[in-house]
């Protein structure tokens, strides 16, 4: 289980997260949605101490931390419970796809290189990248780099994978392939927390949806509850604005095609 209790984070005088509390059961997929600047990515980064919250408790599997008085050793233990998939891939530019996946296995897990490479090949095959194992990030598309990033996250077998808007930096043509890979992982009951702007994806894949706005959890529930029957006016307004923007974008795309 992941349990977050009264998590609070500020940047100087700007309070970004205001006493955030929620739970994620083992094997559950939770999608975090909300407007830009609502604190979604900051929340995710606080879970593995890429950002440090001022107060609150974080429990992941059997590791429990009071963030206001934790030690470096406890932080390292907590970080071992999760892997992060970033917006901008964050691959090692001087390493091949295979080396990116196996690096943590060899360095952190002390696995034999031969065994790590076999696992790396298996994971790259799982995400459809086996034919690119010897290529460097510069020669890969955004979608391909992100799939390598997902394989890297899976390699260390974390309790949970944290996805920070995994498709936001991708060209539209690559979004679908990355979402399909994540959906396949979800089918295997991997615990995942996904910050996303892809509402249809969240509806189809998530077990629970959390709507975050202005640093607070406004509403949470099943996708059907949040998307089809939202109870809060702030949620209703967000979804209305999203659908309006989506419809406008589709009209623009159709107009462009007709002009061409």
Layout of helices and strands, plus pairs?
Blueprint: E1 2-11, E2 14-24, E3 29-33, H1 40-47, E4 55-60, E5 63-66, H2 72-79, E6 82-85, H3 97-107, H4 113-126, H5 142-155, E7 160-164, H6 172-187, E8 191-195, H7 199-205, E9 208-213, E10 216-221, H8 223-228, H9 233-259
Parallel strand pairs: 3-8, 3-9, 6-7, 7-8
Antiparallel strand pairs: 1-2, 1-4, 4-5, 9-10
Helix pairs in contact: 3-4, 3-5, 4-5, 5-6
Helical stretch tally: 9
Reading the helices and strands in chain order gives EEEHEEHEHHHEHEHEEHH
Supply the helix-strand structural class: alpha/beta
Strand line-up across the major sheet: 6-7-8-3-9-10
Helix amount: 40-55%
Walkthrough of the structure:
The longest helix is centred in the C-terminal third of the chain and has 27 residues, at 233-259. 43% of the residues lie in helices and 24% in strands. It has 9 helices and 10 strands. The model has no long low-confidence stretch (mean pLDDT 91). It is α/β, with parallel strands linked by helices. The strands form 2 sheets. A 6-stranded mixed sheet has the order 6-7-8-3-9-10, with helices on both faces. A 4-stranded antiparallel sheet has the order 2-1-4-5, covered by helices on one side.
